[in-house]
Amino acid sequence: MSACKTEIIYQNKDFIFTKCMDCSRMGLMYHQVMIGFDEINFSAFIRYLKQLDFETYKYPCIDGIDRVIIETYHQDIQFSFSEEEFYTLKTGVIEANEQLQLIEMIRKL
């Protein structure tokens, strides 16, 4: 996204969500994780995260910490998040989407 004209849509302590004003690509940065989305895949990611619940999907990892494993479109890449990290990510994505929808509604006026 370096060549993009990005606008910060939502930001909190460890979470930044941006959108390119030219190509509409979206970027999510959470700690060391950076993910790029088009609009369709961002919507799919939101639906995926919303249906996940930590207690139902947690997995005991080798370091002794329960984590949720987030699948990606690449079979060799998964992300693992502790309970706090998972809910911070989930909340951030939902709030970023709400902010994005609000901005788009305002721009249509």
What brief labels describe this structure?
single chain; 109 residues; alpha+beta; 3 helices
Provide an overview of this structure.
It is a single chain. The chain has about 110 residues and is of the alpha+beta class. Helix content is about 40%, strand content about 35%. The chain has three helices and seven strands, in the order ββββααβββα. The longest helix is centred in the last third of the chain and has 26 residues, at about 85-109.
Secondary structure elements and their pairing?
Layout (H helix, E strand, L loop, with lengths): L5 E7 L2 E6 L5 E5 L2 E5 L1 H13 L2 H4 E3 L5 E6 L6 E4 L1 H26 L1
Antiparallel strand pairs: 1-2, 2-3, 3-4, 5-6, 6-7
Helix content: 25-40%
Helical/strand content category: alpha+beta
Strand order of the largest sheet: 1-2-3-4
The tally of strands reads: 7
Cα-to-Cα separation, first versus last residue: 28 Å
Number of helices: 3
Radius of gyration: 15 Å
Q: Specify the overall morphology.
A: elongated
Sheet of most strands:
4 strands, antiparallel
Unreliable stretches (pLDDT < 50, length at least 5) are none
Indicate the mean pLDDT.
Answer: 92
**SSE sequence, one letter per element:** EEEEHHEEEH
> Roughly what fraction of the amino acids lie in strands?
25-35%
Q: Would you summarize the structure shown here?
A:
This protein has 109 residues and is an alpha+beta fold. The chain has three helices and seven strands; from the N terminus they run E-E-E-E-H-H-E-E-E-H.
